[in-house]
Amino acid sequence: MTDTAPIDPKARFGEAWERLFEPAVAHRGLWSPGGAPENSLAAFQAACSHGYGIELDVQLSADGEAMVFHDYTLQRVTGAEGRLSDRSAADLGKLRLSGTDETIPTLLEVLTLVGHRAMVHIELKTPAGEVGPLEQRVHEIIIDHAGPLAVIGFNPYSHAWFAQHFPNVLRGLDSYGYADENARKMAPELRQSYARLEQVSIARPHFLALGVDMLPSPRAAQLRADGMPVVAWTVRSAEQWAGLKPHCDNLVFEGFAA
């Protein structure tokens, strides 16, 4: 099965396509320092209560469960040592987030909480060379979810996997300027290629989720003119959004009321 460009995205993706454009999307839920922790059930509940969409991160536990957590290591958010992927879902579910009573949720728990109340952008934290297991588990979960959602992420081969196996899942390719310290670990040619959005041909996304450091972008503007929406991330002030809005269709925000 291969993907084909939709003649009518609204007809193909329904409410998920409509809610791609509004409302604004809360980055890792509606969290704040000293309040609900990032990627917690409390943060997702707060986003739903305020009428926002939700962005979250997903990676696999040692026993193959889709856990909602951003970092590959546990220290920053839980204070525990080691990598998330080395622990079972049951063990991870006992860890406290940022000193609160909130724990690391599974994707199934989040989608059960959210239901139909919010558009959910599920960022797949697929490591290079490991495409397949996370994507398969996520699809097993989302296939029974009645609410609007999209899968997003930086790995173009993850998107290609969905394009081949489940083309009717809405896909958004993440990218940014690739000028930070982590990006410098990549081969220079690959880093430059991704910054120019050349990976779009591999991923075949339905929309782009672009870092504010690469907007405006002539290549993104052309893709947008050809019918590929652009969502900006992570916008951190109303003033910043005012400057970016002419180049985008929606925003993933943090730290202010969008």
Descriptive tags:
alpha/beta; eight-stranded parallel β-barrel; 31% helix; 9 strands; TIM Barrel; 258 residues
Detailed description of the structure:
The chain is built from twelve helices and nine strands. It has helices spanning 9-13, 15-18, 41-49, 75-78, 89-92, 107-114, 133-142, 156-165, 188-195, 200-203, 218-225, 238-244; strands spanning 25-27, 53-60, 66-68, 120-124, 149-153, 171-175, 207-211, 230-235, 250-253. Helices cover 31% and strands 17% of the residues. Strand 8, helix 12 (238-244) and strand 9 (250-253) form a beta-alpha-beta unit. It has one domain (9-57, 119-253): Alpha-Beta Barrel (TIM Barrel). It has an eight-stranded parallel beta barrel, surrounded by four helices. With 258 residues, the chain is an alpha/beta fold.
Tally of alpha and pi helices: 12
Approximate helicity band:
25-40%
Summed over residues and divided by their number, the pLDDT gives a mean of 96
How many strands?
Answer: 9
**Which architecture does the CATH hierarchy give at level 2?**
Alpha-Beta Barrel
